[in-house]
């Protein structure tokens, strides 16, 4: 397995962008002939960057027995959307980044059924925003994701510079493509399979319960799980393994020491 630090110039953002890539073990893929390697785009949260999953989750160890490639981009505090201040993080992550990655790693699959996206907190929102805002990903997963902003209007009002810079006013945000349930209701293509987990003591838990209920009523294939837990890496580092088990890959669970 190789860990690759990729820095490239993003035409969309007008700046250099950092991405970490985990490339599968040579014993799991034929680097010369295989052109169908599955890939998971793994998104960080508000306080993170391209290194967060590597440092905090043990993702390298977890995927070393698979043929899965992992792509971990940095998006600062951009929420993976095309912001009102002109930084088009959605376009850069959803459309430009896969093209860049395939240019550097042509062995990675272009097939929708072998492209997946997941994230935590802000990255959980980003995974659903991209997964339901395109038809590029067949499996979409969120851990403690900001899947709804219902009940959070005060945050828009109290910090209008930040939230308004991302989404515009509350009135502009409601009913826009940046609202997950609006996307889910208007999605007309082949629906991705969805996964969501949230800790029951997390302040985002009520919102996850609300969105999960609505998604199921809309007929989405959603695996929704909860357990005691807060908004912490202690839980995300465990639940990323549940996502790997849920994905259509050959995943070998390591034995844990008792």
Automatic annotation (TrEMBL):
Coiled coil: none annotated. It holds the Pfam family Esterase. GO terms for molecular function: acyltransferase activity, transferring groups other than amino-acyl groups. This is Esterase family protein. It comes from Lactococcus taiwanensis.
């Amino acid at each position: 397995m190789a860990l690759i630090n990729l820095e490239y110039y993003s035409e969309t953002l007008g700046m250099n962008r950092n991405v970490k890539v985990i490339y599968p073990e040579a014993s799991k893929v034929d680097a010369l002939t295989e052109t169908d390697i599955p890939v998971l785009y793994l998104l960080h949260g508000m306080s993170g960057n391209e290194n967060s999953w590597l440092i905090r989750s043990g993702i390298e160890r977890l995927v070393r027995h698979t043929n899965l490639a992992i792509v971990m981009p940095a998006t600062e505090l951009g929420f993976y959307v095309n912001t009102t201040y002109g930084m088009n993080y959605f376009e850069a992550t959803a459309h430009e980044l896969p093209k860049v990655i395939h240019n550097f790693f042509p062995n990675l699959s272009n097939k929708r059924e072998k492209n997946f996206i997941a994230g935590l907190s802000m990255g959980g929102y980003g995974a659903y925003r991209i997964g339901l805002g395109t038809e590029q990903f067949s499996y979409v997963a969120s851990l403690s994701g900001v899947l709804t902003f219902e009940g959070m209007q005060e945050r828009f009002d109290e910090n209008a510079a930040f939230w308004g810079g991302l989404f515009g006013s509350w009135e502009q945000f409601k009913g826009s493509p940046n609202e997950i349930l609006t996307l889910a209701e208007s999605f007309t293509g082949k629906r991705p399979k969805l996964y969501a987990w949230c800790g029951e003591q997390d302040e985002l838990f009520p919102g996850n319960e609300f969105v999960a209920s609505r998604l199921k009523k809309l007929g989405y294939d959603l695996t929704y799980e909860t357990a005691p837990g807060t908004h912490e890496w202690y839980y995300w580092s465990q639940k990323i393994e549940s996502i790997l088990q849920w994905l259509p890959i050959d995943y070998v669970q390591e034995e844990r020491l008792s």
